[in-house]
Recover the amino acids of this structure.
């Protein structure tokens, strides 16, 4: 049986007003995300869809492609005022299923007819497939989320996401093509992200993004049951700290200076999201 349950749906709308700072609209071509990151808060926002449509399939094990996404977009954009569109926010626009569904590709083709600034955020090198369209967009940037370099540890937290190495290689490729790019160090996973910080920035610098953003790990109460067993297994020495972070975010403020200093060594002034 396939690992991921896929069920096509007809969405009612595709452009959502965003609550993210600096982002006006979001477009999510899929419900669910087969990367299955254990810290993902998106599972909390899509739960009302799952129960009806995906039965017992857990987060990371179902994907519902919105097969009418491009048609909806064309209709909806006519009525929208200008503003930054983020692809995506509660899924990855370049899931493995995108290879065959090409929903993000079709969405980008529609967006190319308009002048909305676009930000694409992904964990997948599949975005390279759409270079032909991205190169023709007037105002676009592409970002890659990166939580650390230790691939064995990363795979505990992001079990089905493409390797960080492949993300950095794709980031480099896009930067070389003259596309605006960013690295999004997110979320900071104590004991992973901050354990080889100099090497992390060195590798990011090689990929040469235009900017680097950083965000912390927010452990919402409903997520602890997913995160706790992974930390106990992968980073047992850090379980106390993760437990503290649930209620007290001071750790993330204490490490900011260290991040800033190392980033500046590589020519980056970090953009903090918290
Ligand atoms: S890639 Fe993003 S949306 Fe997908 S599971 Fe990971 S954090 Fe959630």
């Amino acid at each position: 049986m396939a690992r991921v349950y896929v069920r096509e749906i007809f969405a009612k709308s595709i452009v959502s007003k965003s609550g993210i700072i600096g982002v006006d609209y979001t477009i999510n071509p899929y419900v669910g995300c087969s990367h299955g990151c254990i810290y993902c808060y998106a599972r909390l926002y899509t739960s009302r869809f799952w129960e009806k449509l995906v039965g017992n399939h857990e987060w990371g094990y179902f994907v519902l492609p919105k097969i009418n996404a491009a048609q909806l977009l064309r209709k909806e954009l006519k009525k929208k005022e200008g503003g930054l569109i983020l692809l995506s926010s509660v899924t990855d626009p370049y899931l493995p299923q995108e290879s065959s569904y090409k929903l993000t590709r079709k969405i980008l083709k529609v967006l190319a007819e308009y002048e909305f600034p676009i930000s694409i955020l992904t964990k997948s090198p599949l975005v390279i497939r759409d270079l032909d369209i991205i190169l023709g967009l007037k105002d676009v940037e592409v970002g890659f989320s990166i939580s650390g370099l230790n691939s064995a540890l990363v795979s505990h937290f992001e079990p089905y996401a493409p390797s960080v190495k492949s993300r950095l290689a794709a980031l480099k490729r896009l930067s070389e093509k003259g596309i605006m790019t960013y690295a999004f160090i997110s979320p900071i996973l104590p004991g992973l992200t901050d354990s080889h910080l100099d090497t992390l920035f060195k590798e990011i610098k090689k990929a040469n993004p235009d900017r680097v953003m950083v965000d912390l790990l927010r452990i919402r109460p409903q997520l602890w049951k997913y995160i706790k067993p992974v930390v106990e297994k992968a980073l047992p020495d850090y379980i106390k700290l993760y437990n503290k972070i649930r209620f007290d975010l001071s750790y993330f403020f204490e490490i900011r200076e260290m991040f800033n200093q190392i980033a500046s060594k590589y020519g980056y002034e970090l953009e903090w999201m918290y």
